[in-house]
Amino acid sequence: SGRMTLLLQVIPYGGEQTLLLSRDISHLERLERMRSDFIANVSHELKSPLTVVAGFAEMLAEDHAGYSQEELSRYLQLINEQSLRMRRLIEDLLTLSALETGGDTPVEERVEVEPLLQTILGEAQALSAGRHQFSLLLDEPATLRGCASELRSAFGNLASNAVRYTPEGGRIDLHWQREADGGGRFTVADTGIGVAPQHLPRLTERFYRVDRSRSRETGGTGLGLAIVKHVLTRHHATLEIDSEPGHGSRFSARFPAGQLLV
Ligand code: ADP
């Protein structure tokens, strides 16, 4: 909003005089609001699985003989699932915070694109467990300048999202191509549920999800695209999203020529 908040400071300025300073602090208020929203979100995201874990653990501790084998294994499975959910969230939070405190530039390594994409493909296929068809197309071998683990996490998030938001029987295509200007582009195209245009601008915000329950059911933390955005920005790359609800999405990471090694 265009609202302005002025901070007035009255400073004694020799004898009878005072100096009045005013500064617009609306951006500080906005930052503070974002910070407290973030903490509220994190707390909420951790609290719901913790409630499940604590509830079942307490129940089992009170009367451990009173349950059948099936009941026991169902409860333990729930405890397990919810613990994993908390762990994924904490891992993503640590990744984000490392990105935020890691300085402006990532480690500079030579990252071979082909083996990186093979790894991403393998992980996505494991997550899919045979429910989707995959292809990997690499127009030519390429080497990126940047941090291998950050790029792996960014590309991996795009590929796992494609799996998670594409119904069984869909296709997921991974593609690396060189661009006319010497840059390069990594694209993940899926035939999944797509994203309506009004959601696109907010998709990379932390905890922004189109469908909270679908994200949860498929193991989402709501932080994946925020991590992608951060990693790409640090590599001077941009994220492009084209999507058609009900038909599928294309998420591309576009690297400028300067990030490619020949
Ligand atoms: P999440 O853990 O919820 O998947 P992300 O930050 O990775 O969090 O993604 C944010 C939201 O963007 C998701 O909740 C989902 O609504 C949408 N989204 C991301 N990738 C896709 C995709 N390939 N197809 C459809 N929707 C997607």
From TrEMBL:
One record GO biological process: cellular response to phosphate starvation
Membrane disposition: Multi-pass membrane protein
EC number: 2.7.13.3
Keyword set, alphabetical order: ATP-binding, Cell membrane, Kinase, Membrane, Nucleotide-binding, Phosphate transport, Phosphoprotein, Transferase, Transmembrane, Transmembrane helix, Transport, Two-component regulatory system
Domain Histidine kinase: 41-259
Record-level GO cellular component terms: plasma membrane
GO molecular function: ATP binding; phosphoprotein phosphatase activity; phosphorelay sensor kinase activity
Catalytic activity: ATP + protein L-histidine = ADP + protein N-phospho-L-histidine
Tagged with keyword ATP-binding: yes
KW Nucleotide-binding (keyword) present: yes
Cellular location(s): Cell inner membrane
Top-level lineage group: Bacteria
Function: Member of the two-component regulatory system PhoR/PhoB involved in the phosphate regulon genes expression. PhoR may function as a membrane-associated protein kinase that phosphorylates PhoB in response to environmental signals.
Name of the protein described by the UniProt record: Phosphate regulon sensor protein PhoR
Organism expressing this protein natively: Rhodocyclus tenuis
Lineage: Bacteria, Pseudomonadati, Pseudomonadota, Betaproteobacteria, Rhodocyclales
Full-protein interval shown: 173 to 434 of 434
